Structure formats: C-alpha cells, structure tokens
C-alpha cells in the first residue's frame, strides 16, 4: 500500500483506472492533453477515454488522422513546445509505423541537442494477445523498446499501477512509453479512493516465497500468481516478482530475489529470441551466478505470428500449466 493511502476502497476496473489517471492529470495540469485515433467522439478503441471529450473539449481530447508517424511526431513537437501530451497508439503493432519518430527523434533529441531540449512525452499503447485479434494486433513488442536508451518503458499490471504510473510519467522530463495489456482492461478489483501517483523505478514483490523466483510483468502477472498458488499445493514456495518497468530494469530487486530463492523462471509474453527474458537471464548470470542451485528457465510465446483461432492463440502464449511445469522442473528436476 502506498504511504498515506486511504483504507477506503472503491470497486473499479483496469480500464476505469486508466481513465481516472488521464482525467486526474488533465485536471491537475492544463498543459496535459490526449491525442490519438478515435480517442474523442468514439471514446477510445478500448473505451478508455469515453466521456473525456464532453468534459474537456476537442482542444484537449484530440482525434487524429490514421497516421502514427504524423501524430507521434506532433506529440514530440508539442512536448518540445512546453505541452505535456499523452499520445495513444491503438496497439503496439501500429507503433512500428512511428518507429522513426520514437527511436530517432523522441529518444535522441536530448542527447543530440547537447541537453537543451527535453521531450516530456508519454505514449500509451495496448500490447499482448488473447483477444483473437490476429497477428497484426496481438504481439508483445515492449521488449524491443526496452533496448533503446533515452526512453522509459512501463508495464502496469495492477489497478494501482494503471491508476498511478501516468502522472509520474508525465512529470518525467524524458519520453515514457506505457504498455497496457489488452486482457487487463476488464479486470475488476478494489482501488483506494485516494489512489494516486506511484513510483516507476522499482519492481515489486507480489508474493513472497523461499524456493523459486517467478519473474514477470504485465499480462502474465496474474497467470504467474495463479501458477504460484498451484505449486504451493505441492509444497513449492514461490516468490513472484512484478518487473513493472522494463527500462530501466530494476536489476537489484531481481538479484535480491534470486539470492533468496536460488532458482528462477522468467515468464514473458514476448518471443524467446532476443527477448527481455534473455536480458534478465544475462543479468542474473552476471550478478547472481553463484547463488543459483539450478539453471534459470523461461516461459515465452511460441515463435510464430500470433494465430487467429482461439485454441491456437491460447497455445502460442504463456499459460498457467506451462508456468507450473517450468517451476516444478527447476525446483524438483522433473515435471
């Protein structure tokens, strides 16, 4: 619980928590505005911005043409001009059309201007599979962005992070990308009435344990927590680490957890090759090799374009049984 947070709770959803975060930011700071495809009259492709156009008007809730390169570039320009834009890209796949703006401009202008121009830009986008939206709408590419110096990469999984990460990101002088897993939007839960800004620099221990560290983020957090409960019935005590931020990675929390449990499985909805899970494995090797009692394992998506049929899509992404099997193998040597 955040320090000073009220004990009074309200029932809400992840979608509503994100909307509350946007609304709160716009009420706090008149420089904040939201722009993207269908964020205004339609209320957002995932209904996140529903009602905000009526409250704030078209100057601050801006529908854009269908050109990611153009409106991300406009967001960069607005940030350079003193505004605090929130740019919404419908899915991470579509962000590839704006890679030049994100990687060659937003991430580099501070460096290339000799420190003269910060880019206080926030880009939100949906990521992940499980909704039968096929290969052009369903991939988890946030690990790609974690490769790039000059940006921060956030992956809120809980209601508290969905509500609280945005304001902290808007206060950051540099570009911040927020990846919202599409399967989480309907997630229901309780949130403190006065929930507000949260730290964006540290991982969080979501479940304490002594025998194995299950390291994950975003849409696979709750599958991992379920898997931890299942293996607990077999007497395996798992710790669950929610990375929360992929760049900069909180290496210290990862290493501290592995040093306690001496075993690790990384669960990542991205593909295995060249993934953020591979980077985490490398950091464990570099910093905690002699703490390990077993090789580090990982559960990733199958290396195929995301299938459309439900049974194939389910088979392609990390699921609870695969996490359980990997954890049992690492702890006991067999499944």
Description of the molecule:
With 335 residues, this protein is an alpha/beta fold. It contains 13 helices and 14 strands. It has two domains: 184 residues, Rossmann fold, CATH 3.40.50.970; 129 residues, 3-Layer(aba) Sandwich (Rossmann fold). α2 links the parallel β2 and β3. α1 runs parallel beside α8, α3 runs parallel beside α5 and α9 packs across α13. The two termini are 36 Å apart. The relative contact order is 0.12. The model has no long low-confidence stretch (mean pLDDT 96).
Detail the topology: elements first, then pairings.
Elements: E1 9-13, H1 14-28, E2 32-36, H2 52-56, E3 61-63, H3 68-80, E4 84-91, H4 92-95, H5 99-106, H6 109-112, E5 122-127, H7 142-145, E6 152-154, H8 159-171, E7 176-181, E8 188-192, E9 204-207, E10 212-216, H9 221-232, E11 238-242, E12 245-247, H10 251-261, E13 264-271, H11 276-288, E14 297-301, H12 310-316, H13 320-332
Parallel strand pairs: 2-3, 2-4, 4-5, 5-7, 6-7, 10-11, 10-13, 13-14
Antiparallel strand pairs: 1-8, 6-12, 9-11
Helix pairs in contact: 1-8, 3-5, 9-13, 10-11
Task: Identify the CATH class of the largest domain.
Answer: Alpha Beta
- The tally of structural domains comes to 2
Strand order of the largest sheet: 3-2-4-5-7-6-12
The CATH topology of the largest domain is given as Rossmann fold
Give me the number of helical elements.
13
- Cα-atom radius of gyration: 20 Å
The backbone outline, from C-alpha atoms, is globular
How many strands, which pairing sense, and closed or not: the largest β-sheet? 7 strands, mixed
Strand fraction: 15-25%
**Secondary-structure content class:** alpha/beta
Would you count the extended β strands for me? 14
| CATH architecture grouping of the largest domain | 3-Layer(aba) Sandwich
Q: Helicity range of the residues?
A: 25-40%
The topology string of helices and strands comes to EHEHEHEHHHEHEHEEEEHEEHEHEHH
CATH homology group of the largest domain: Thiamin diphosphate (ThDP)-binding fold, Pyr/PP domains
Low-confidence stretches at least 5 residues in length (pLDDT < 50)?
none
Q: Mean pLDDT score, rounded?
A: 96
Separation of the first and last Cα atoms: 36 Å
């Amino acid at each position: 619980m955040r320090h000073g947070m009220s004990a009074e709770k309200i029932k809400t959803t992840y979608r509503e928590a994100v909307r509350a975060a946007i609304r709160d930011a716009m009420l706090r700071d008149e420089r904040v505005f939201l722009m993207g495809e269908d964020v205004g009259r339609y209320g957002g492709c995932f209904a996140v911005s529903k009602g905000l156009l009526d409250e704030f008007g078209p100057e601050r809730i801006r529908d854009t043409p269908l050109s990611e390169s153009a409106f991300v570039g406009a967001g960069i320009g607005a940030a350079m001009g003193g505004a605090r834009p929130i740019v919404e890209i419908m899915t991470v796949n579509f962000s590839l059309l704006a890679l030049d703006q994100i990687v060659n401009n937003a991430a580099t202008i501070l460096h290339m201007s000799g420190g003269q121009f910060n880019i206080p830009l926030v880009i939100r986008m949906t990521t992940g599979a499980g909704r039968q939206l096929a290969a052009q709408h369903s991939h988890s590419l946030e690990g790609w962005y974690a490769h790039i110096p000059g940006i921060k990469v956030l992956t809120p999984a809980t209601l508290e992070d969905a509500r609280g990460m945005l304001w902290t990101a808007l206060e950051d002088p540099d570009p911040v990308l927020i990846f919202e897993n599409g399967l989480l939007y309907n997630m229901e839960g309780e949130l403190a009435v006065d929930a507000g800004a949260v730290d964006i620099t540290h991982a969080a221990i979501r479940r304490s344990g002594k025998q194995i560290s299950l390291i994950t983020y975003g849409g696979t957090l709750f599958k991992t927590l379920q898997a931890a409960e299942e293996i607990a019935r077999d007497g395996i005590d798992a710790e669950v680490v929610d990375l929360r931020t992929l760049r900069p990675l909180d290496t210290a929390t990862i290493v501290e957890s592995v040093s306690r449990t001496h075993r690790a499985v990384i669960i990542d909805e991205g593909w295995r090759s060249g993934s953020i899970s591979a980077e985490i494995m490398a950091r464990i090797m570099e910093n905690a090799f002699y703490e390990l009692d077993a090789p580090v394992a990982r559960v990733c998506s199958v290396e195929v374009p995301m299938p459309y049929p439900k049974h194939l899509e389910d088979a392609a992404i990390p699921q609870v049984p695969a996490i359980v099997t990997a954890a049992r193998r690492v702890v006991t040597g067999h499944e």
